[in-house]
Amino acid sequence: MIKDGELVIPGQELGTLEEYLPGENVYEVGGRIYSKVLGRVAVKDLMISVSPLKEIPRIKEGEVVIATVTEVKENIAIVEILAIEGKAYRSIASPIYTAAIPISQIANEFIKDIRMKLRTSDIVRAKVISTQRGIFLTVKPPDMGVINAFCSICRRPLRRVSGNTLRCDHCNTNETRKISELYGRYFIGGDKYGNNPRKI
Predict the structure, then answer these.
(1) pTM over the 0.85 mark
(2) What is the topology classification, in CATH, of domain 64-176?
(3) Three-class SS of residue 103?
(4) Which of 87, 98, 126, 170 could be joined to 57 by an S-S link, Cβ 3.0–4.6 Å?
(5) 34: Cβ–Cβ under 8 A, 6 or more apart, which residues?
(6) Mean pLDDT over residues 128-153, rounded?
């Protein structure tokens, strides 16, 4: 259960319409309420909102970031960095930096179609490999990659079924991504099982 003051990421489920009324920086799909931004939950009189954090940290090579995919081209994905692990957050509406993930930094295999690995609106966990002439990221390591994705048809969150396959239980369709081993378990301060705390 989400607690007042808890830090959440974009797309994280906060509750249902039976529990709360949607407030600021949240959206509702199929009776469930999700966060639009990176920030802290605020619950007042059964209304749930998220207050974005707005500090802008510096970024360095080797740091791990959380980003949202904004554009997918033939050989590169463009992302907006939302947060740096271990540093302050800024909201999804006001991203910290724009960065790029080259197709060669997505997986250790030949990729025929980059859209089979990353799609717009995906939330990814990535590592900074260069800050020279722009910011470049990699999602090759097992704990890097997509940590939250949405159905291309109905925009509902996708559930991991096996390997790199995700399923929309509403549309009954499957999609593929370069999935992080933390998919569906990434929460600020640790996963929902209490393992591998990752304070941001």
Answers:
(1) no
(2) OB fold (Dihydrolipoamide Acetyltransferase, E2P) (2.40.50)
(3) helix
(4) 87
(5) 11, 12, 13, 14, 26, 27, 28, 157
(6) 92
